[in-house]
Design goal:
Shape: globular
CATH superfamily of the largest domain: Periplasmic binding protein-like II
Distance between the termini: 46 Å
Low-confidence stretches: 1-41
Radius of gyration: 23 Å
Mean pLDDT: 91
Number of domains: 2
Strand content: 5-15%
CATH topology of the largest domain: D-Maltodextrin-Binding Protein, domain 2
Largest sheet: 5 strands, mixed
Oligomer: single chain
Amino acid sequence: MSSTPSKPSMSRRTLLRSVAVGGAALAAPGALTACSSGSGGSDVSNSGKKLAPWPAYRAVAGPKPDLAPTADGVQAGYTAYPADLITSVARTPGDGSTVKVLSVTFGVPPKGRAQNRYWKAVEQALGVSVDFTVVSQADYQKKMATVMAGDPDSLPDIINIFTGVALPREAQFVQKRAEDLTPFLSGEAVTAYPNLAGIPTHAWRDMGRIAGRVYGIPLERPLPGSTLYVNEDLFAGAGMREGWTSQDFAAVVRKGTSGKRYALGAATGSLFGNAVHAAAHRAPNAWAVEDDGTFRAHFTDERYKAAVAFQAQLRKNGSYHPDATSLSSPDLTTLFLNGTVGSMQQGFGAYTSLYPDSEGLMSPAPALPYGVGGQPGGIVAARRSFGYTILKKAKKERVELLLRVLDHLAAPFGSKEWELLHHGVEGTHFTRAQDGSPASNELGDVENITNLPFRYLAEGPQVLFVPGRPDAVRALHAWQQKVVPHAVRNASYGLQSGTYTSQGTTLKALMDDTVTAVIAGRAPMSDYDAAVKTWRSRGGDKMAEEYAKEHAANS
């Protein structure tokens, strides 16, 4: 980005990019949480199994951050683009062969390989020809069902398992068809692939094991998850302040709503941005584990019920946009950028597009959580693995080649490899801004890592960086320092439940529909209580038992 503000863009491409980097805030739980150990299949449970050690963590020695990370989850921050990029990969990893890959995408279909200079540049760096099957988020579940049911010999070499959808019997498929990567990556073995060793342990942990083994490579994500992004000027003008309470919040959004401007916006499927409010009320993030090892669901917690009632009051007093149950996430982003709504729930990583896309329009900022009952409000702790990558079963030499390719793709921020993957070729896809950071040109807006998503095959650890906006990086880092200690983690991450696989999607839909109806004013709170009883009897209590057993095995 140049030092002169460019014309703000609200194209469909940038809005879809916002969804992609935001961490799929509206996605349903998936990945290894959705594994089954039920009848008719292999035992994928970790209970009673010898657990493979997590891959050893060895941080890559890249450019020193300007703002230091912390052990509890505050990210490293870079207020300027590194002047001296490192080389993180010693040699070209490939052997000239063709590698077939499949990944979800949040962008538009990429230009064909023959005309795509970004595609060719990455292939040259990797030393392989990449036969890339790109699947839209909307089509991913259907495509994966076909892949999972198909001929094992026809599987792609590398498959991105997207955590935004629940794939029935996912773990059994992985266990049966994917390469067991334990001998290659467990413990010190991962050090043969330095960039993969640079993936922090929290990402492997939240990905989880299958029957005690390591089958995937996680896509690391920051600790903050679903975040309330606000129009800072609007909210500050209406009275937003540090240390505010739920009563203060209600007063601010009421004051910030007038005419056809609404302080609160929400997208379909988000339960009116419920995750943010449940965390502020300190309700469990889906599942909490008690001191005695038992699991408790948020639906059964009075704090979660109080959050729903609070949202229902906000809806009743008119603070929400009237189309909050039907807006798509890209449409909501448009309304946020043009000032129609003053806030929206998104994955924390949405800042990477919100800040540049809002330039000249408004000033976005992550809101501090409000407190309830004298207690500081919590924030949503994200799953630290946005997805994971598996490999088709193959001979040892082939597996090692594929791991070298993924090691290259997992290059860290501040490396020459990262710059190529994220920005393409200098002079072809980008030019240098005055601060040295890459600024995409017209070709780079079409040929890029969003439309050809190498980032969902492997990726280095996430850092805080906004080109040309050092103050934004400092503000985001300061915000994390304040809220990370109050992050509410989902205790089921990385664990397995057969009942979730068989009943979880249906039961979640029951509760989501009920919560939405209560907040919208279409159903009384007594309907919520009845739904919770149904949820528990049809599988909720059984899930709690299974997660407790898995937790004990992983402790």
